[in-house]
């Protein structure tokens, strides 16, 4: 069955719906070789957090230390255009949050990349990407890809060669939301991928923590909206330390 899942995943570019149809129709398959490590939904090491999703990935491709999936994890997300305050919030979070946590983010520009960068030498980090692991997107984060796959964990539901299509990233966000015990929002506009990740976390009954902003900072007003709707507000360093 593992061979079937790998074949379908590669054939259908990681599309969970197409893979499910292939399984239900008992579609023909053949044994193929794959150059990098992978796990399937049938394996013991498959993260239990993903089984709570409506559409869990059937195959996960990885580079690095797969045992990090067994550690306590905290998901951190934010804007691709990071503000000075957002940068400070990232630094504060990583300074005071429990070192036991492995940070989880999406290796995008801005907050994601900075969280991974801050984690490289202080804790472990897991990057979940929306393309094949052989494609470094965005290219400006290539050095992070290399560091993470060498010393941390790089994860994707998309096989090698899969391009970073825009529709991949909302799907990637559900994995970030699922993997963390809690979700921390550094900064967000009202309409953004960050807000989609928050919605996924809420669906999974995850606690959401948010840094507040001045009401005049409209470009990150999504944070205050989340607080108004009931998210936990990060008021000081003690709040972070107690997460």
Automatic annotation (TrEMBL):
Query: Entry's Gene3D superfamilies?
Result: 3.40.50.450
Q: Where is the Smf/DprA SLOG domain?
A: 38-242
Q: Name one GO biological process term.
A: DNA-mediated transformation
Which protein family is it in?
A: Belongs to the DprA/Smf family.
The record, for PANTHER family, names: PROTEIN SMF (PTHR43022:SF1)
Q: What NCBIfam families is this protein classified in?
A: dprA
**Can you say what this protein is called?**
DNA processing protein
Report the source organism: Breznakia blatticola
């Amino acid at each position: 069955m593992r061979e079937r899942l790998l074949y379908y995943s590669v054939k259908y570019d990681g599309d969970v719906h197409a893979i499910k149809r292939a399984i239900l129709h008992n579609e023909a398959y053949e044994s193929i070789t794959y150059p990098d490590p992978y796990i399937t939904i049938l394996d013991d090491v498959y993260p239990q957090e993903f089984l709570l999703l409506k559409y869990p990935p059937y195959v996960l491709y990885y580079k690095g230390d797969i045992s990090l999936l067994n550690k306590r994890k905290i998901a951190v997300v934010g804007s691709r255009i990071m503000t000075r305050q957002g940068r400070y919030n990232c630094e504060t979070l990583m300074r005071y949050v429990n070192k036991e946590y492995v940070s989880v983010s999406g290796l995008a520009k801005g907050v994601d990349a900075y969280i991974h960068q801050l984690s490289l030498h202080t804790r472990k980090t897991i990057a979940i990407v929306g393309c094949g692991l052989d494609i470094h997107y965005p290219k400006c984060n290539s050095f992070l890809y290399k560091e993470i796959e060498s010393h941390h964990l790089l994860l994707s539901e998309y096989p090698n060669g899969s391009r970073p299509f825009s529709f991949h990233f909302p799907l990637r966000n559900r994995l970030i939301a699922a993997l963390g015990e809690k979700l921390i929002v550094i900064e967000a506009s009202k309409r953004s991928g960050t807000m989609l990740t928050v919605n996924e976390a809420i669906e999974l009954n995850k606690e959401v923590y948010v840094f507040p902003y001045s009401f005049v900072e409209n470009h990150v007003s999504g944070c205050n909206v989340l607080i108004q709707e009931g998210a936990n507000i990060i008021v000081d360093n003690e709040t972070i330390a107690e997460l």
